[in-house]
Design a protein that fits this description.
Helix content is 30%, strand content 25%. Strands 5-4-1-6-11-8-12 form a 7-stranded mixed β-sheet. A two-stranded antiparallel ribbon has the order 2-3. The chain contains 9 helices and 13 strands. A hairpin with a 2-residue loop joins strand 2 and strand 3. By secondary structure, the protein is α/β, with parallel strands linked by helices. The radius of gyration is 17 Å and the shape is globular. The chain has one domain: Alpha-Beta Complex (Spore Coat Polysaccharide Biosynthesis Protein SpsA, Chain A). This is Nucleotidyl transferase domain-containing protein. Pfam families: NTP_transferase. GO terms for molecular function: nucleotidyltransferase activity.
Length: 244
């Protein structure tokens, strides 16, 4: 069975500054279409057509997006994180908790809604062995801005070091995951982090300690669409990789 994929799109996008004041950063226009369009385009081309978008900030804008693009992306489901789990708790774990009653007992994917991936890399995550949990990895020149992934010789995750000043590796968390339902039990044990958030990486770390998380390195491009200057990068990726 094709696994569902959850797109985490509840964040405020503060690094996008004034561009995200009235528009969610996931819907900022890139080459005449909202950024999220391009992520969905490749998700659907990879055969992942059970899509749940978790919204929060400016959620009504996502409703407009879905009405506009429903013909191209049929069956999109939206869950409002604020309605599902409230606004008292914040962090990357909350979209997962918002959809737990929908997911229940099947494997599923989670992807950050402000990232771009190739069809090939998304397809790998659709098909990987269901016995493990998986986290996408890529390398960057400056890993201090990201969570770095420490692995063993069998590609099993040992730990995640969050934005440390002297990382031991330049292999980083690329924001794409495939989980077994056991991630939900691990999520229940997560407590608030030093950053004041509930973080999905803490649940992943708990499973990594049981040797249940593997790393899959991305084969193609990756973009974290977080700052105004990333718009030009996104345009270049789209020019070279998006064909209808």
């Amino acid at each position: 069975m094709i696994p569902p994929i959850i797109i985490a799109a509840a964040g405020r996008g503060t690094r996008m500054k004034e561009l995200a004041q009235a528009t969610p950063k996931h819907l900022i226009e890139v080459k005449a279409k909202p950024f999220l369009y391009y992520l969905l385009f490749h998700i659907y081309k990879a055969g992942l057509k059970r899509v749940i978008i978790v919204t929060g900030h400016l959620s009504a804008e996502f409703d407009k997006f879905i009405k506009l693009y429903n013909a191209e992306f049929p069956g999109l489901q939206v869950v409002n994180q604020y309605e599902a789990v409230g606004q008292e708790k914040y962090g990357s774990l909350m979209p997962l908790l918002a959809v737990r009653n929908i997911i229940q007992s099947e494997p599923f994917l989670v992807v950050n809604g402000d990232h771009l991936y190739s069809v090939r890399d998304l397809d790998v995550f659709r098909q990987v062995n269901q016995d493990y949990n998986y986290i996408a990895a890529t390398t960057v020149d400056d890993p201090t801005k990201f969570g770095t992934l420490v692995t063993d010789s069998d590609s099993l995750l040992v730990r995640i070091d969050e934005k440390v000043p002297e990382p031991v590796t330049n292999l980083i968390n690329a924001g794409l995951y495939r989980f077994t339902p056991e991630i939900l039990s691990a999520a229940d044990e997560v407590t608030i982090s030093p950053r004041g958030e509930y973080e999905i990486t803490d649940a992943i770390t708990a499973l990594a300690q049981q040797k249940k998380v593997k790393i899959v390195s991305l084969q193609d491009y990756w973009l974290d669409f977080g700052r105004p200057e990333d718009i030009a990068v996104a345009e270049s990726i789209i020019d070279n990789n998006y064909k209808t």
